[in-house]
Amino acid sequence: MLHIVYQRHHIPPDEVYGKTGSQRAMMYASDLIVLEDEERERRKAALKQQQGRSR
């Protein structure tokens, strides 16, 4: 998860670790929600593409 925070928000690990536990938890939870939404969209797109091929 730290990698995602760094890659998407450009917050280096030392800054993440410098935050309080509750601040880090909020950052991780927020990114987890986004990742879950993205995965849901990928699955929808794959299913739609698969259904298009079977017709």
Structure notes:
The chain has three helices and no strands. With about 55 residues, it is mainly α. It has one domain. The longest helix is centred in the C-terminal third of the chain and has 33 residues, at about 20-55. It starts with a helix and ends with a helix.
The tally of beta strands, per DSSP, is: 0
Look at the structure and give the mean pLDDT. 94
Let me know the largest β-sheet.
Answer: none
Cα radius of gyration in angstroms: 16 Å
Coarse shape: elongated
- The helicity comes to over 70%
* Strand content bin: under 5%
For the termini, the CA-CA separation is 39 Å
Ranges with pLDDT <50 over ≥5 residues? none
Outline of the structure:
This protein has three helices and no strands. It has helices at residues 2-9, 13-17, 21-53.
Can you give keywords for this protein?
single chain, 55 residues, mainly alpha, 0% strand, elongated
Topology:
Blueprint: H1 2-9, H2 13-17, H3 21-53
